[in-house]
Amino acid sequence: MCNSRYDQGMKVRRAVLGNAHVDRAEAAKTPFDEGFQNLITEGAWGTVWSSEGISQRERSMLTLALLAALGNFDEIPMHIRATARTGASKQDVIEAFQHVAIYAGVPRANHALKLAKQTYAEMEAEQAAD
């Protein structure tokens, strides 16, 4: 697929998630989910994440808070890993999840923190192995 929003989306997606993640996702794409994957690349990455209205650091914090608040826990590790590229610190993530605790519920924030701790530990182990 070639259009400017898709191309911009792939550029930002790679910058935020890393080439290895995007390459794995692209390799797993099939005709069944290709349209959906294109929608995400154009809409999420080519429009929302490409907007200059707020920084990628702020976008990471919002994304993590929304994922936790809505109970969409499967994508939290991916977005924790993305903080290494967006500039959101561990303290930023803690602050975002504290907001979740107050406004959306302690159990969701608690689970999100558990996932973040596990993911940060994996990232540190991977970095030490390199």
Automatic annotation (TrEMBL):
Molecular functions (GO terms): 4-carboxymuconolactone decarboxylase activity; peroxiredoxin activity
Which EC numbers characterise this protein's activity in its record? 4.1.1.44
- Which chain positions lie within coiled-coil regions? none
Q: What Gene3D superfamilies does the database record attribute to this sequence?
A: AhpD-like
What are the UniProt keywords, alphabetically?
Lyase
List each copy of the Carboxymuconolactone decarboxylase-like domain by range.
36-117
Q: Which InterPro entries match?
A: 4CMD/NDH-1_regulator, AhpD-like, CMD-like, Decarb_PcaC
Pfam families per the record? CMD (PF02627)
Task: Quote the NCBIfam families the UniProt record gives.
Answer: decarb_PcaC
Please name the PANTHER family in this protein's record. 4-CARBOXYMUCONOLACTONE DECARBOXYLASE FAMILY PROTEIN (PTHR33570), CARBOXYMUCONOLACTONE DECARBOXYLASE-LIKE DOMAIN-CONTAINING PROTEIN (PTHR33570:SF2)
Q: What is this protein called?
A: 4-carboxymuconolactone decarboxylase
Q: Which organism is it from?
A: Parasedimentitalea huanghaiensis
Q: What is the lineage of its organism?
A: Bacteria, Pseudomonadati, Pseudomonadota, Alphaproteobacteria, Rhodobacterales
